[in-house]
Protein: dolichyl-diphosphooligosaccharide--protein glycotransferase
Organism: Aegilops tauschii subsp. strangulata
Amino acid sequence: MAELEAGSISMAAGGGGRLRNALSGMLCAFALLLIGVLAFSIRLFSVIKYESVIHEFDPYFNYRVTQFLSKSGIYEFWNWFDDRTWYPLGRVIGGTVYPGLTLTAGTIWWLLNSLNIPLSVETVCVFTAPIFSANASWATYLLTKEAKGHGAGLMAATILAMVPSYISRSVAGSYDNEAVAIFALIFTFYLYVKTLNTGSLFYATLNALSYFYMVCSWGGYTFIINLIPMHVLLCIVTGRYSSRLYVAYAPLVVLGTLLAALVPVVGFNAVLTSEHFASFLVFIILHVVALVYYIKGLLTPRLFKVAMTFVLTVGLALCLAVVAILAALVASSPTKGWSGRSLSLLDPTYASKYIPIIASVSEHQPPTWPSYFMAINVLAFLVPAGIISCFLPLSDASSFLVLYLVTSVYFSGVMVRLMLVLAPAVCILSGIALSEAFNVLTRSMKFQRPISDDTLPTAGDSTPGSSSTATITTSTKNANIKKEKMGTISKERSSKKSRKETELVGSSPVRPEKEEKLCVLPSEASAMGILFLIMLCGLYVIHCVWAAAEAYSAPSIVLTSRSHDGLHVYDDFRESYAWLRHNTEVDDKVASWWDYGYQTTAMANRTVIVDNNTWNNTHIATVGTAMSSPEKGAWEIFNSLDVKYVLVVFGGLIGYPSDDINKFLWMVRIGGGEFPHIKEQDYLRDGNYRVDAQGTPTMLNCLMYKLCYYRFAETDGKGFDRARRYEIGRKHFKLTHFEEVFTTQHWMVRIYKLKPQKNRVRGKLKLKLKSSSKTSLMRKGAGKKNPWQ
């Protein structure tokens, strides 16, 4: 009879466990849905407060390419030669762009229109980044779950959905490559860890496909193809080699490299550049180690030593040969096989010394400590706890997360743009730390509840709600777990085993709880800890909402400022582009600094000399030289390039700091790198860059100064520059080779037209006038005697 009761209790416990698992699964899915809604909605402040518009500079090129793709199709896109950029060189778009973002948005637009949802291409482009931020949050959950369970995964996903570092590049309207690349990065890491845990070739194939999508989306794919080999090498060195590690890595290198070579912008660089050599070297080492383990399983210890010597000799010789070949290939390249940006990451001073065009970009500057606090806020204090949790216990998945954090911290310290890569690692480890902390604190409060003698369970207690039922339920749950692991044992033997375990646990029900009490905290300390963590999370949420609503919601093309008399909106950029579109010829060429090339082409539909692609340093240096030259020399350069209009951005009237005057020294440095007669010292006074009365004559006479400050003294009578906060040096001058054709309302954008070359007919008329005057003089002196006769 007792056996029947115990069996019925175990069946009820099994049914309760299944119900509990189903409810937890439903709650987890609902929580993930809410996290996705949170990630999407927190990025809509830019649309709610302003309007649905593309942000920044690079996204306008991506938007223009997506428009072309939706109108002309995929084949025309691959073969598109754009003659409106880099005049007179042009640009092959299909072979020089990472197509992942464009193809993704184009596919979404096509699917929506196929379902009779008529959204414009611009609307799809605006909301692509918020959509993929939700996908990135879900991918973060999957990755963290593989390392530390569901609770840590949900916490990490929630943190990533709000982290300011990721919001800065994924707000509505931020249509850049990082919008989809961060999701691809996290999802590739998840599939790699999943393959490590399961050894499944299916997940390994998916991992290679995810890596292919990452290659299509962003040049940062080289971070993946170097981080994963580092982790594989770490596992080999620490004695954690397994067949699962082989399955996780080998298909990624082979299939991933073949797929990466299919992307036109990458091509054979997938096997020829130094960024990829580490993966091939680790691939060889992995096969040597796999061969050693295979031989060890076949031979006796004595023969294994002989074979080990042979394998190591051959393996070392092969590795040395590969290293020699790679060294020869690297030595033949002037940059040692590395791209300029990669060398800037390995040597932070490289760009400033040799490639000023890279150093001139604000995103490529090292971050400051306030930048870290703005980007990750209180998460910086949780990361160390997350690292400790990863070592308790250490697994392949947790060691990968720690390695990911360490490498991303270094790269983010070199280039502020790469704080975007750091954000997922920080969120994952902070989520693990919070999950473990809440787990310890809540468990402490749970086991601190007093247990009286009357409520102690006995073997005969079977009433619902009693502690004996809870004890039996716990024991039967453990029995069910063991039954799942031992599937080959018959049902009869397993039921007997569960009954025995039930009786054993029922005879001493308090002992497990006493063991748990040894590792718990006092209830008061636990309550204070929980309140502190809740307060910390609240501060993080407040900071994230503020960053999303105020710091990162304003589109750079429409500027705003607040003062005592209210909100001021500066729409000068679109005003100037609209003027160019409506008041110039279709084939007119517009010269400006490269920052504004993408916007000019996309919004004004006019041909530009340089743009944000920065693939031709000489062409950019030519424009920089023209801006740094005197008016006549600049006119000759622009005229040789068939330029008709010159556009400059000026912030002296309203105090806009990111104008061309503040960027001018970079124009001088880049121009001087190709044309030695441009020297930076000529524009500095005692090492200081000034445009006031202390400015050098070379500075006060260059084209950039004249185009920015022409008629500026008429605004207030003094010529006070609000961006530099002093009066300008040269106030009253005239232009001889350029004429002002348009200045926006707040003087932020000024457009000048090149004056035509003087007509030669006028010169002939002057010669005729001179000749006629000479003949009249000769007639007057005809009465005088010629001394030569």
Remarks:
- Residues 568-754 form a domain with the Rossmann fold fold (CATH 3.40.50.12610).
- The chain has 36 helices and eleven strands.
- Confidence is low (pLDDT under 50) at residues 452-518, 777-789.
- The CA atoms of residues 537 and 720 lie 47 Å apart.
